[in-house]
Amino acid sequence: MQLLRDRRLALLVAGQAVNGIGSWCAIVALWGFASFRFDAGPSAIALLGLAWALPPVVLGPLAGVPIDRLGPKRVLMVADGLAALVSLTFLFAGSFPALVALAALHGITSAFSEPALRALPPRLVGDEHLVQANAVLGAASQSAIVVGPVLAAVAIGVLGIEGAFVIDSLTYVVGVLVLIPVVIGAGAGADARRESTVRGEIREGFQVVWRRPRLRLLMGMSGSVYVIWGAFLVIEPVYVRDVLHGSATTLALLQATFGVGLLATTLVVTRLGERVARVRIAAVAAAASGVAATLYIGTAVPAVAFLGIGVWGCVTSFFVVPARTLMQRVSPVETHGRVMALDGTVNSGGHLLALPLVGLAAAAVGVQVAGIAFAAIPITGGLVTLWRVRRDAPAPAPGLTPFCPETSVEPAAA
What we know:
Blueprint: H1 7-37, H2 42-70, H3 72-89, H4 96-118, H5 121-124, H6 130-159, H7 161-179, H8 190-195, H9 198-210, H10 213-242, H11 248-272, H12 279-297, H13 302-329, H14 336-365, H15 367-392
């Protein structure tokens, strides 16, 4: 691919691929730690997910400020370096409360690293290559979903659950090292930011989102998808254990299947380029993800479960890349750290909303019914977004090219 001839993007992609492998390895190990070693039920796993999700919600509005002030590269390197240390401390988690505390520390590092990573592509490539850059970077991370769970299964089988956390720490270090030679210029508006206060910059981040209807619509639709992601953090380990009667290895293989579908269609998205940069496509994919999740969680047959989660992976890439690209395009580059951090707040807020509710629902009606109920949320979010786009599109005057509100870049003051 021509984009990877840019050494900076190639290094970033390579680093995130390695980093992502370790992260997924650790996530599977964390689920296994909680579910199989400490015999955690839905409510306990919900607490673990809550500890992971709460820091980005609290820190999200603030996390974007250093990203826009110092640059996303610096913040990403510091956050990932700290995450490497946190991953090693999982080795000493001798109790479930200790596991929860360490999950919270990991959540703090991700509150800064995730929006920093998402703010990098517009600083590395021109707008005409932004869809492909996001897709390639996504493919790197998503290839980790394929390899990471499989590596976790091997590591857990050979070294025990603790071995997965060591691998996670080492991959964070690799991710930091490959960023060192990547040179990124300062974003526009750097001088103005140095003269403003932290409170003023936080307020500006909220204003950027509030004044852009398209950005608000994208974040609202994304929130409906993020809710189901948070809910299934609780549901999946218990579903695999109690309904499919599988093990930590089964859980890892299911996640790998999701990753195969996600990676395969992300490569398709890379080839399609601008043709997928539409709100309608992201909305259809959001609704389809809820349908696929229903197929996955609604069965007790392992083969059908693997089919369902594979389909879910396939449609997810058609949501992630368009939504991320459109968010970057409708917001000024000098505010991308704060905008992406606020989207991270929506992401973690969706998890935060889902975790206690799904824990209670699963305990009351079972993990399958609870999962199907939460799958209805992105279906609704996608359909509402489609209706809003259609409603807001003005009728073209005779002889004029129709205006497409899905892809237009709103003016800075709009």
